[in-house]
């Protein structure tokens, strides 16, 4: 766009940000390139949650429930005491006072977990502990109402064996300090619905109901594979011209943070035959393969060379920056099972931004999540930057809020797709529309918050397998 024709960012509401719907093959204004939404729609096409699996409760944290949970019994399980004290018939202590206590015979001692509980006759009390079953009235037709007097309201010692008699210095109403069976959950009640995401509180409820496992949408298995003859395993010495592989670490971590079971494979050199052999070995245990590098316009584009043949993977340009060169397709493992393949560009920032734009939404769809996108806030630009005409720019920014809560962003570093330290400083990606070339202070932009979504799942088989790659 020529000088003077600058288009400013206006943060127009309603502008599609990164939605997954729309025309799957929509092209953007970037010279025939596919729009970001168009490519996302292609990536999400056919993505659906994996078949439900029954998992032990602690493996199901953060996963989406695939069954309605109906209580097989009540909660609380039985009428129990909520205080350490004495179970009494409420009628026996109705007129009790400090100077005229009700004196009762102690006929039993019931700790938590006791199976046998003596019944209460008029004039008697049973010592009970918090969580212990509360005695019934021996004659519920005449004296139905049982209550618990906390030990502090009696003359009894808090420790040691129960006394023969206890003096109660205050009245307690019927049912006082008694947790009724079923007051929290009734037998047959539906307590959780399919589609809910399991938090620690959900898991606690399931355990309370006696469940050891639960039917959930399982985590997709992701294999991340960097390519490039210059790429060397972190920790290894570099020869001239070599760099350490950062993409596979960053992407595996991003996949795990998004809820997947992800693992790295040692980087594969620029040898299409070798890449195909590594892929063949990895496909049987993957739901998604992510590659980085080897997809642009150079002489040694290993991913393109290996996967374009037969049309299994299509390579396109997406009208976005960074993250222009993209590929997507499906490969079959030896058993004929289809595995999704997304090939991301090699520049580290491009690979990461591509993850946010395409891979994370795919993972969330497969995990059964409804919301596929990061939270988005509108922010006022404090320090501006420029953008390429015709491309949706996802620019690294740091987002801060002022005293009245307004979000502000400033550019972090330059636009280079190799600037990985700036990526750490950034806390959001500002979304610059295709027609905007010049983002200035005061402009308003939608920004995707790059927040951490929860603890990564542990994966014992998580690190590079010996023998794969260079
Ligand atoms: N003539 C053209 N050249 C390039 C174009 C283009 O349109 N025409 N597009 C540029 C854009 S945009 C991108 S993005 C990159 C994408 O390239 P590739 O996906 O083919 O990636 P490579 O060439 O293999 O690597 C790019 C860059 O990133 C470094 N890299 C690669 N893998 C890793 C890794 N695992 N960890 C860290 N760094 C990695 C690599 O050394 C290169 O510096 O193409 C542009 N070129
Ligand atoms: O699109 Mo490349 O991803 O600009 O650096």
Automatic annotation (TrEMBL):
Pfam families given in the database record:
MoCF_biosynth, MoeA_C, MoeA_N
Q: Which gene encodes it?
A: glp
What does this protein's UniProt record list under function? Catalyzes the insertion of molybdate into adenylated molybdopterin with the concomitant release of AMP.
Q: Where is the composition biased (Low complexity)?
A: 165-176, 460-470
Organism expressing this protein natively: Pseudokineococcus basanitobsidens
Known pathway:
Cofactor biosynthesis; molybdopterin biosynthesis
Kindly state which reaction or reactions the protein catalyses.
adenylyl-molybdopterin + molybdate = Mo-molybdopterin + AMP + H(+)
Q: Enzyme class, one word?
A: transferase
Q: In its UniProt entry, what is this protein called? A: Molybdopterin molybdenumtransferase
Q: Give UniProt keywords alphabetically.
A: Magnesium, Metal-binding, Molybdenum, Molybdenum cofactor biosynthesis, Transferase
**To which protein family does this belong?**
Belongs to the MoeA family.
Origin: domain of life: Bacteria
């Amino acid at each position: 766009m020529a000088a003077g024709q600058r288009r400013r960012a206006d943060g127009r509401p309603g502008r599609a940000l990164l939605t997954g719907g729309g025309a799957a093959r929509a092209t953007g204004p970037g010279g025939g390139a596919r729009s970001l939404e168009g490519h996302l729609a292609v990536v999400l096409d056919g993505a659906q949650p994996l078949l439900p699996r029954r998992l032990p409760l602690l493996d199901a944290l953060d996963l989406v429930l695939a069954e309605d949970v109906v209580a097989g019994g009540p909660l609380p399980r039985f009428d129990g005491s909520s205080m350490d004290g004495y179970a009494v018939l409420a009628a026996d202590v109705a007129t009790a006072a400090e100077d005229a206590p009700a004196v009762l015979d102690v006929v039993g001692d019931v700790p938590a977990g006791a199976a046998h509980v003596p019944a209460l006759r008029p004039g008697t009390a049973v010592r009970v502990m918090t969580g212990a079953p509360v005695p019934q009235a021996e004659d519920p037709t005449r004296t139905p109402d049982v209550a618990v007097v906390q030990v502090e309201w009696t003359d009894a010692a808090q420790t040691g064996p129960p006394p023969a008699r206890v003096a109660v210095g205050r009245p307690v109403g019927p049912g006082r300090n008694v947790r009724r069976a079923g007051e929290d959950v009734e037998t047959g009640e539906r307590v959780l619905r399919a589609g809910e995401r399991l938090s620690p509180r959900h898991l606690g409820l399931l355990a309370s109901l006696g469940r050891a496992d639960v039917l959930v949408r399982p985590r997709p298995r992701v294999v991340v594979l960097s390519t490039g003859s210059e790429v060397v395993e972190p920790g290894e010495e570099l020869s001239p011209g070599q760099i350490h592989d950062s993409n596979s670490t960053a992407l595996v971590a991003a996949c795990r943070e998004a809820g997947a079971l992800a693992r790295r494979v040692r980087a594969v050199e620029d040898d299409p035959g070798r890449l195909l052999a590594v892929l063949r070995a990895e496909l049987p245990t993957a739901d998604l393969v992510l590659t980085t590098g080897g997809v642009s316009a150079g002489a040694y584009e290993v991913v393109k060379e290996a996967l374009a043949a037969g049309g299994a993977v299509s390579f396109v340009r997406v009208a976005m920056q960074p993250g222009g060169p993209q590929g997507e397709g499906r490969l079959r493992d030896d058993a004929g099972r289809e595995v999704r393949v997304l090939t991301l560009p090699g520049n580290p920032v491009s690979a990461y931004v591509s993850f946010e734009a395409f891979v994370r939404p795919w993972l969330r769809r497969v995990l059964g999540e409804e919301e596929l996108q990061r939270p988005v806030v509108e922010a006022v630009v404090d320090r501006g930057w420029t953008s390429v005409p015709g491309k949706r720019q996802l620019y690294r920014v740091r987002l801060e809020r002022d005293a009245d809560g307004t979000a502000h962003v400033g550019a972090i570093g330059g636009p280079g797709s190799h600037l990985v330290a700036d990526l750490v400083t950034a806390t959001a990606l500002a979304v610059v529309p295709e027609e905007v070339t010049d983002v200035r202070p005061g402009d308003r932009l939608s920004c995707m918050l790059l927040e951490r979504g929860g603890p990564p799942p542990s994966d014992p088989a998580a690190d590079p397998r010996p023998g794969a790659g260079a």
